[in-house]
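Please predict the structure of the following assembly.
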Amino acid sequence: EAGVAQSPRYKIIEKRQSVAFWCNPISGHATLYWYQQILGQGPKLLIQFQNNGVVDDSQLPKDRFSAERLKGVDSTLKIQPAKLEDSAVYLCASSLGIKETQYFGPGTRLLVL
Amino acid sequence: QKEVEQDPGPLSVPEGAIVSLNCTYSNSAFQYFMWYRQYSRKGPELLMYTYSSGNKEDGRFTAQVDKSSKYISLFIRDSQPSDSATYLCAMSANAGGTSYGKLTFGQGTILTVHP
């Protein structure tokens, strides 16, 4: 069974630029999560989708971050404009349902200069 | 105060040692307790899953939950160099609405097992 796929794996941008990350969850998984993991910290949930609807985006900085999950499968996370403090690994995870085990992708490592 | 506190280490032990990893938490609504292992430049993978208080054993790994003390532990017996990774505790509440299924992670403990 293929795991959660993410791209790109690495991205370097300058502050105030925009960037987008893509996630393809495990086939059949209805719930998709985006986490931000800053160096030396545990992952922090940014947004959670159930199919193509948002369940929780309470920790998403909505002035600069946006996410969508069209058709309830793939998802994109966008940052515009980026700040230095956005440097982190952005992890995508998926699960069969809200209370099921979450499976994580390898992450996208973002460096904002 | 953070909802979940985890000693970041780093922790360095010789091969064959018993390793103890711990987390404390403040949210009494947490009912589900997990340990994830994260290798360098990889995503976290679920290692152990426990509901409410008690012990759970899986091979060389034992997870303990003491809800009265708001304290969870992971023990690794006969540690191996391949166990070298960051270990993250995670918790979620058994409640409806948007908090259901939401994981709150500790900051992770970096473990190195040297031959």
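Chain A has no helices and eleven strands. The mean pLDDT of chain A is 94.
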